[in-house]
Write a structure and sequence with these properties.
- The protein is of the alpha+beta class.
- The chain folds into two domains: about 80 residues, no CATH class; about 200 residues, no CATH class.
- About 60% of the residues lie in helices and about 10% in strands.
- The protein is built from twelve helices and seven strands.
- The protein has a five-stranded antiparallel sheet with strand order 6-5-4-3-7. It has a two-stranded parallel ribbon with strand order 1-2.
- Helix 3 packs antiparallel against helix 4, helix 4 runs antiparallel to helix 5 and helix 6 crosses helix 8.
- The longest helix is centred in the first third of the chain and has 28 residues.
- The two termini are about 35 Å apart.
């Protein structure tokens, strides 16, 4: 930040606790226009003051700036042609962890993928390849479903899942899919209720568009929350029957990356339905972009 900008923000900060709400609204507007570069200065002002009104207003402004950054980044992701699944998951996680950087996620994923490349023999069978993926993800890197705190929002944050090795079916599936795609495996996400799963396409089916793939084009399914256990169609039938869920074709077919990210945000919305409601409202705004 230039000296002129620094002087300007200092002047504006001194006006933040003005009792005249019209003055505050104008000051807030000008600070918000400066964007995320002003956050360190705002944080220093917060730390050096014991004024509760100033604290409250600074916190509110920082939160607005951070959400604007997430909203803008997520919107750009939604409009991109690639719709990279990891990037989409990153913006969802950044909503919870506003200081998160993409490099942190990429570094961890790259390490796991490198281990997979070193172990995988391209000539083995599809089931053999899945066994290798499972070995790397679950045996070597110790990933698993978070059974002790299933409702935690951290389960939906890819950075936390990569860090502690525990998550929900969607975040584990995103990591699993990313690993598989990196080594050329024909994997697809399948939006099964309650437990998101993965499909392994038969030869030739990977060249089809998502809308043209039939259930018969899927060799088998993989359950990312059960250490990569292989499932057949009959087992999905049984699962839906046990859960008293009506069968639908979409529960057996590939979904796109937007659907996966929708599922990720939905789990957070479910958690925040009990509050705080400002987070719930913001999550709904992100969902509206999809």
């Amino acid at each position: 930040m230039s000296d002129i900008s620094q002087n300007k923000i200092q002047v504006l900060i001194k006006l933040l606790d003005d009792p005249d709400i019209l003055v505050y609204n104008e000051v807030e507007k000008k600070i918000l226009e400066m964007g995320s570069s002003v956050i360190p200065t705002l944080e220093k002002a917060w730390e050096s003051s014991d004024n509760s009104l100033l604290h409250s207003r600074i916190e509110n402004i920082i939160q607005q700036i951070q959400f604007t950054e997430v909203y803008t980044g997520f919107s750009a992701w939604r409009q991109s042609l690639e719709l990279n699944i990891v990037e989409g998951a990153f913006w969802v996680a950044k909503f919870i962890y506003p200081y998160l950087e993409m490099d942190r996620i990429n570094t961890k994923l790259s390490s796991i993928i490198l281990d997979l490349r070193n172990e995988l023999n391209p000539s083995i069978t599809p089931l053999g390849k899945i066994k290798v993926v499972n070995h790397i993800l679950y045996d070597i890197h110790k990933f698993s479903r978070n059974v002790s705190n299933q409702s935690s929002p951290q389960n939906s944050c890819i950075n936390e899942v990569l860090e502690i090795g525990r998550g929900n079916s969607v975040t584990l599936a995103i990591i699993y899919l990313t690993m598989g795609w990196a080594v050329g495996l024909p994997l697809v996400g399948v939006n099964l209720p309650i437990n998101f799963i993965i499909g392994y396409l038969k030869p030739g089916a990977e060249s089809l568009t998502r809308s043209k793939i039939k259930a018969s084009d899927i060799e088998f399914y993989v359950n990312p929350t059960n250490y990569g256990a292989v499932l057949r169609t009959a087992e999905i039938d049984q699962f839906l029957k046990q859960q008293q869920i009506e069968k639908r074709n979409e529960y057996y077919l590939p979904c796109n990356n937007i659907t996966i990210i929708k599922r990720l945000i939905s789990t957070l919305i479910l958690f925040y339905e009990q509050g705080p409601y400002d987070k719930l409202n913001k999550l709904n705004k992100l969902m509206d972009l999809l």
